Amino acid sequence: MSRRLRTAILISGRGSNMDALIEAARAPDFPAEIALVVSNRPEAVGLAKAKAAGVAVAAVDHKIYAGREEFERSLQIVLETHRIEFLCLAGFMRLLTPWFIGQWRGRMLNIHPALLPAFRGLHTHERALAAGVKIHGCTVHFVVPEMDEGPIVAQAAVAVLDSDTPESLGTRVLEQEHLLYSRALRLVASGAVRAEGNRVLGASASPQPALTVPFSG
C-alpha cells in the first residue's frame, strides 16, 4: 500500500477519541499512522494510555509559556521533530492562534460534540436539551481560525430521548464520536474527500443510515 500519513493527536485529558483513532490505525489498510500523541497537560491520563499502546508521546506544558504563540512555537518544533504531516484534535482544550492554524490549514481535524453549526462552544449536551432539539450528534471538521467552524467532513446523529440527561445523551454521542472520527480520518488521509470552499465533497463518512425519530406526542 502507499505510504501512510504521519499523524499526531493533540489531547488535554483522558483521550477517549485518541484510543479509537489508535485502534483504527492498527488496521494494515488504514491510510494514516498515529505517530505521536501530544498533550498541553503533562499529567493527562491519555499520555500514559498512548505510551502503553506503543505510540510516542510528548508534553508541551502551556502553563510555562508567556503566551499562546510561545507555546505554539514549541509545539510546532515538537511536531516537526517527529515529521508530523497531519493533526487530529481530540479533546484539546486550547484555543489555537491563526498563526498555528495557518501552519496546518487543510491538515488539521477536530471533533465537536454537536451537529455544527448548532451549539458551538462548550456544554453542548446541556444546551441541546435546553433547546428542545430532537436530534443531536457530533461533527468532524477541518480547523479554521474561527472556533468550531470550518468545512465539515462528517456528522453522526443520535435521537434525543424524553428521559435524557446531559450525561446519558453525552454517552451516546461519544459512542458515535469514536466511530465517526476514524472514518473521517480514513477519508481525508486516503484522499477520498476534498474541501472546496466551506464544503467537503466526496464519499460520506456517516457510520449509520439516516436517522428517523419516532413521534412521541
TrEMBL record:
GO terms for cellular component: cytosol. N(1)-(5-phospho-beta-D-ribosyl)glycinamide binds at residues 15-17. The keyword Transferase applies. Its EC number is 2.1.2.2. The keyword Cell membrane does not apply. Transmembrane segments: none annotated. Residues 6-185 form the Formyl transferase N-terminal domain. Pfam families: Formyl_trans_N (PF00551). One of its GO terms (biological process) is 'de novo' IMP biosynthetic process. Pathway: Purine metabolism; IMP biosynthesis via de novo pathway; N(2)-formyl-N(1)-(5-phospho-D-ribosyl)glycinamide from N(1)-(5-phospho-D-ribosyl)glycinamide (10-formyl THF route): step 1/1. GO terms for molecular function: phosphoribosylglycinamide formyltransferase activity. It is an enzyme of class 2 (transferase). It catalyses: N(1)-(5-phospho-beta-D-ribosyl)glycinamide + (6R)-10-formyltetrahydrofolate = N(2)-formyl-N(1)-(5-phospho-beta-D-ribosyl)glycinamide + (6S)-5,6,7,8-tetrahydrofolate + H(+). Belongs to the GART family. PANTHER family: PHOSPHORIBOSYLGLYCINAMIDE FORMYLTRANSFERASE. Catalyzes the transfer of a formyl group from 10-formyltetrahydrofolate to 5-phospho-ribosyl-glycinamide (GAR), producing 5-phospho-ribosyl-N-formylglycinamide (FGAR) and tetrahydrofolate. NCBIfam families: PurN (TIGR00639). This is Phosphoribosylglycinamide formyltransferase. It comes from Methylosinus sporium. The lineage of its organism: Bacteria, Pseudomonadati, Pseudomonadota, Alphaproteobacteria, Hyphomicrobiales. The gene is purN.
